[in-house]
Amino acid sequence: MSPSEQEIRDEDLKDFLLTIKRHSPYDFTEYSLKSLKRRLSKILLENKLNLSQLEKEILHNTDFMEKVVKSITVNTTELFRDPQTWMHLRDEILPKFASSKKINIWHAGCSTGQEVYSMMILLEELGLLEKSEVFASDINSDVLETARAGRYKFRFNQAYIENYNLVMEHVPDKTSQHGKAHHEKFFTVDKVADVIQMKPFLTEKPVYKKIDLVKDENLFHVKFDLIVCRNVIIYFNYELQNKVFNLFYNNLYEDGCLVLGVHESILGPFTANFSKKKQAYFKK
Ligand SMILES: C[S@@+](CC[C@H](N)C(=O)[O-])C[C@H]1O[C@@H](n2cnc3c(N)ncnc32)[C@H](O)[C@@H]1O
């Protein structure tokens, strides 16, 4: 904890989370306390409040409540985040679907959409995009708006074009005849205006929905070949993680695959229901 951060006691935090649960549609009571404390300290500092003042404030002001709720969740993401996972998808997971008629993919906790675009770019280069249905969800409606627009600040994403190059370098059976497709095929970069803009054939493809993994069912009402949920359950406690694994298990086809983040794994009862290969868990 930095000296400027306020120390938040577990009991006070739990009371605060119960207040949010009672007075909003959100339930963070099964999130890991450590990360919540870090986020809340930041919010308190920015608003020059202590926890009980913040609690009073959000009860009087629903817009502020919504704002606080949104800043509690971590939205960090990037194009081709953790390139080793994308290489595994490229070489071993996605090619399994080459003979499928259709591929249903769900990005749960997609944030501002860079993960969704990374997937569509890779699918296109493997010749699989056309037969893919891409679904993406998040608890936060603001990040979904950004995802739909596919418009990002160049200066925040510049470094990740490197990730693109790393992953695209060795696309097997690539549809492009002249080696790696240039990224301009997928997004334009305007350095002066500080904008990366995804091309319409990508922005128009996914179906986005606000889904809260704590309390909602699968609101897409289809089953999936692939569910990607990375860097989301890391913020959940063990019980909530298992609840989410149950949701994913029930909504995957037989042999379907769940991809988790590099610091996440299935522990507990669901280990018996999946076979693991790196970050990929195949439904048994
Ligand atoms: C760190 S981002 C991960 C984004 C992307 N999957 C990646 O790995 O780059 C975590 C996302 O999970 C979302 N999230 C947190 N709690 C959630 C919940 N209960 N239901 C759905 N999404 C949630 C947050 O809003 C945030 O956008």
- What is the domain total for the residues? 2
Biggest sheet details: 7 strands, mixed
Q: In DSSP terms, counting alpha (H) and pi (I) runs of 4 or more, how many helices? A: 11
**Structural shape:** globular
Summed over residues and divided by their number, the pLDDT gives a mean of 93
Can you tell me about this structure?
The structure is a single chain. The protein has 284 residues and is of the alpha/beta class. It has 2 domains: 10-72, no CATH class; 83-283, Vaccinia Virus protein VP39 (Rossmann fold), CATH 3.40.50. It contains 11 helices and 10 strands. The protein has helices at residues 10-23, 33-47, 51-60, 62-72, 83-93, 114-125, 141-149, 154-157, 160-168, 200-203, 238-250; strands at 103-108, 132-138, 151-153, 187-190, 195-198, 207-210, 224-229, 252-260, 274-277, 280-283. The protein has a 7-stranded mixed sheet. It has a 3-stranded antiparallel sheet with strand order 3-5-4. The chain is globular and about 55 Å long. S-adenosylmethionine (SAM) binds next to loops.
